[in-house]
Design a protein that fits this description.
globular, alpha+beta, YaeB-like fold, about 90 residues
Length: about 90
């Protein structure tokens, strides 16, 4: 599977502390080998992220992605639940 990143994702990723960046890399690698591992809580989204899916990075942080094709995913956002969903 090929992983791509939006400009928004890259901008927000650069703002993360190093420990969170490493946690994302760990979870991304898990996602690549087992996309529906229970640790990821991979689930579909609705509303402004309709058609996208979310995976857990930590208890607070999520990464949002969508499938461009069967073999290409693009991560479009990373942040806390309130940052991403405004709640």
């Amino acid at each position: 599977m090929v992983v791509l990143y939006s400009k928004r994702f890259q901008k927000n990723y650069k703002k993360l502390q190093l420990a969170l960046r490493q946690k994302f890399k760990d979870r991304r690698n898990l996602f690549l080998t087992d996309p529906f591992n229970p640790l990821l809580d991979n689930h579909s989204l609705h509303g402004k992220y309709d058609g996208c899916r979310s995976i857990n990075i930590t208890g607070d942080y999520r990464a949002i992605y969508y499938h461009e094709t069967e073999n290409i995913v693009r991560f479009i956002a990373i942040g806390t639940h309130p940052e991403l969903y405004g709640k």
